[in-house]
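step=encode ok
step=design start
structure_in=
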């Protein structure tokens, strides 16, 4: 009985070996393909938006042909496929590995640009469009990282074809970061946390002078100082507002939160 049990166990082990990754349909179909054919098929799947299969074929290519330009391009394409498939973390991990493996690669401008694009927190999803969430209300950390990636691209490769678009996106990121500060300042004003609101308004004036939020930041400071019974500071803030925005509506009326309402804000304005 023991003999038959051991024979049966051995048969199961053989069966397990026969059903390893080599039995994968794509692995079988492509086992005799050249690197050129494997890359062409993977790229075709990517262009057809079959991202899962594209990644699978790119992985097969890299495992069989780990060296050379096709393996390097496969890694870049795979990062892009992950991005298109909304797999942000996998895309960033693939980009990070590429930077580590090929720090002087001629496509490094594209790598930095792609990193910025992946980090660029501009929600184009169906849920994001339905909720109309204001970009400025989201966690700004990813956009700060995107700004750094675009900045590195411009610094290291100022003649790159990606610089113009990166510069435009950086401008939008700064506007959004300023908007995030404004969103928090409004939040504090609504809750009577006037000192905290002033600090956020000052952040806008000092760090985001070229955004559309400076005028309102000054108005918030005027209102907050008045509510804190600080008339001299309120008057000082008003003089700055008048000098820089002589036609400001806040010179004739007190600040009020014109964007009060649901938390999801006005994302459609950022389109």
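sequence_out=
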């Amino acid at each position: 009985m023991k003999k038959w049990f051991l024979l049966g166990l051995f048969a199961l082990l053989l069966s397990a070996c026969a059903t390893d990754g080599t039995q994968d349909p794509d692995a079988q179909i492509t086992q005799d393909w050249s690197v050129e054919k494997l890359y062409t098929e993977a790229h075709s799947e990517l262009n057809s938006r079959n991202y899962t299969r594209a990644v699978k074929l790119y992985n097969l290519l890299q495992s069989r042909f780990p060296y050379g330009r096709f393996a390097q391009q496969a890694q870049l394409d795979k990062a892009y496929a992950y991005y298109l498939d909304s797999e942000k973390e996998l895309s960033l991990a693939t980009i990070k590995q590429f930077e580590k493996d090929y720090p002087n690669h001629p496509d490094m401008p594209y790598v930095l640009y792609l990193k910025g694009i992946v980090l660029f927190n501009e929600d184009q999803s169906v849920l994001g469009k339905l909720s109309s969430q204001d970009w400025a209300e989201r966690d700004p950390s990813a956009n700060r990282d995107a700004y750094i990636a675009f900045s590195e691209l411009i610094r290291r490769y100022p003649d790159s074809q990606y610089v113009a678009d990166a510069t435009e996106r950086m401008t939008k990121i700064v506007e959004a970061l300023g908007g995030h500060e404004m969103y928090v300042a409004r939040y504090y004003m609504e809750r009577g946390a006037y000192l905290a609101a002033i600090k956020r308004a000052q952040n806008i004036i000092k760090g985001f002078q070229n955004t559309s939020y400076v005028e309102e930041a000054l108005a918030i400071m005027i209102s907050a100082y008045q509510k804190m019974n600080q008339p001299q500071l309120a008057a000082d803030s008003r003089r700055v507002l008048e000098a820089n925005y002589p036609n400001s509506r806040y010179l004739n009326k007190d600040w009020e939160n014109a964007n009060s309402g649901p938390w999801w804000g006005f994302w459609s304005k950022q389109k």
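step=design ok
step=annotate ok -> The radius of gyration is 28 Å.
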